[in-house]
Amino acid sequence: MTAAGIAGLATVLPTGTAAAAPGRCGDHAWCDPGRSPDERAAMVLRELTLDEKISLLGGDDLAGAAGSGHTGTGHGVERLGIPPVYYGDGPVGSRQGSGTSMPSGVSLAASFDPELATTYGATVANEVRCKGNDVVFGPTVDVLRVPTSGRAFEGFGEDPYLSSRIGVGWAAGAHSEGVMVCVKHFAAYTQEGVLGVVGSRMLYNAVVDERTLREIYLPPFEAAVREAGVGAVMGSYNRVGGQYACEHQWLLNDLLKHEWGFTGYTIADYAAMHSTGNSLANGMDFEPWPALVYSPAAIRTALATGQAATSDVDEHARRILRTMFSHGIFDRPAYPNDDSQIDKKAHLDTAGHVAEQGMTLLRNDGLLPLDPAALRGKTIAVIGEAADKFVQGGGSSSTTPYSFVSPLQGIQRRGAEAGITVVHEPGTTPGAAAEAARNADIAVVVVSDMMSEFLDKPNLDLDSGIAQFPPPALGNPLADQDAIIEAALDANANTVVVLETGGPVATPWRYRTRALLEAWYPGANAGTALACVLFGDVDPGGRLPLTFPDSDDDVPTAGDIARYPGKGLDVHFTEGVFVGYRHYDAEEIEPAFPFGHGLSYTSFAYSDLRVSGEKVSVVVTNTGNRTGHAVPQLYLGLPSPREDVPQPPRQLKGFAKLTLDPGRSASVEFTLTDPALSYWDELAGGWTVAAGEYRVHVGESSRDIRGDGSFTVAAERRVR
């Protein structure tokens, strides 16, 4: 029952793995683990030829990765004991062959539980390691700007503080498995493009002010570097201020490596590099696949024509070597590629637990939890094609599960235990859905959307993404799901709607539902988790890490093509810091469901809110008759120091995940530190705490505030 307070979690640094068996370094002076990583890297660097240094900067060529199973390879230098480095995709599970398909990143974020994020990161990294990889590409910490973004499911939602806390926990778990973390995608990567073309991620230029970058899009990366000690940062496809992110002097050198003190190395996303000379000179260390821009010939040409210097090559090679030493890659045996090492059952159980904790109950008038005793001898109709499918996002987070429990299978198993008849109606027509619902005592309608890397959804409609997979010419594989929901609601008031979506969707029928559950993309153990939540074996643990808009017209970028998908190649971030719930709160727009919202099967009271010095405390009491999860959230309203520095009404600055038995109370304390109170002052070029009144709000969502307070800062001060 600890709060993820404003000061953040304890710093977690990679420990590497103490190898019982000999490492791969050989008999060289730099193989002494008693020397510092910097010293060891410098010693190796002095022995490398220029060609060998160049070879360290590029991974596989176009054909090199084929058949290897790894996502990429960094080639070593055998004569000097420099081992190869193997890379594996892993934001939601290993993509190398089959793996445990974990719930989506947004599902993990909905748990509001950094400790669970640590378990998640360790589970993914364990499988990545057991498949012979040294580095995991993950987590994805891009803050959600456009709710229809194709990769909304992969990240941790619309709030930088929540994304930071979940990302740090994820990285700590991965490091505990001896796997190096490559956090992605740096920076201001917020869209794939309409049909993958208009506003394409490969071309768009983020026109964004420094305050917005510093306060919204950069904090999760800064936390990953400063707190989690990640070994690598992946550059994104897009441009920022006219310069491609993978050759961006300010982002890669000035900010990341110098200001933040990042000692690892930068990695380009696949096919994200453009200019060999600019990349070498401006801070890009490694191109994984295909190594075209950093091919030996391209680098030699850039050096010969004066586009870059040999000192640039030395610096990139030094960073790669130093990071390999600091993460123990030289000092341990190679990880074997052997799936038999993986505890598949334990990982499936973990996937189910994460899904339970992420499932977010949006509406409930008492229909849930279902009572097995009352339903004995009765019928549940499970409606929808999605109920019997493995639903996941597309692109680099798509996985092939070792095994899969569908929602239908989970409900059938639970029903069989309780003597309940469970029937399935795919619901290919509204008429069929209505008939199935009418003939059942309870109807459970399971619907899904389709989100993917490479293209954004055109709108928030459930079916808008699905219509693109396969292309429209081949037909829509699923029926009109809104019509299916409406038909079931018409036929049976006791209808539960379950959403398996990658992000927010339109819910025009929501006021007619007795129960609405957001299950996200729930992973390999979807059905087990869903049945446990529906029947009340566990309390739904999720809270929304993003806002569900009432309509497409309400989103921050609506009605302005310059904001999205962009005017020409420029995408103008003119909404500034008013992203997600900050926008809805500032504009007093009522969302369908607000950020932080999520219901429990019990009820909670908040009392004794105290604001004293650097502390905010509140007592949370379970006032119901069931054990349940509470997620008290701390929001601050900062004073506006000048007219040109508007502040959102509320910003998330702390939260806690509590499990309380009936009648039990817990006191939650949040620490107010300068970083939580500060804003980026572009005039001063630094973080500043403004003078004035700071409003304190504690509640169950950005709109459900249970207690208010305030304190005053007498004089402005620079903090860093």
Largest sheet composition:
6 strands, mixed
Could you estimate the helical fraction of the residues in percent? 25-40%
The percent range for strand residues is 15-25%
Mean pLDDT: 94
Low-confidence parts, pLDDT < 50 over ≥5 residues?
Answer: 1-20, 467-477
Alpha-carbon distance between the termini? 31 Å
Strand order of the largest sheet: 2-3-4-5-7-10
**Gyration radius, in Å:** 26 Å
The total of beta strands comes to 29
**What class, by secondary structure content?**
alpha/beta
Number of helices: 19
Domain Fibronectin type III-like: 630-702
InterPro entries: Cellulose_deg_GH3 (IPR050288), Fn3-like (IPR026891), GH (IPR017853), Glyco_hydro_3_C (IPR002772), Glyco_hydro_3_C_sf (IPR036881), Glyco_hydro_3_N (IPR001764), Glyco_hydro_3_N_sf (IPR036962), Ig-like_fold (IPR013783)
GO molecular function: hydrolase activity
Protein name: Glycoside hydrolase family 3 C-terminal domain-containing protein
Task: Describe the overall structure.
By secondary structure, the protein is an alpha/beta fold. Helix content is 26%, strand content 20%. The chain has 19 helices and 29 strands. The strands form seven sheets. Strands 2-3-4-5-7-10 form a six-stranded mixed beta sheet. Strands 11-16-15-14-12-13 form a six-stranded mixed beta sheet, sandwiched between helices. α14 links the parallel β12 and β13. The radius of gyration is 26 Å and the shape is globular. The two termini are 31 Å apart.
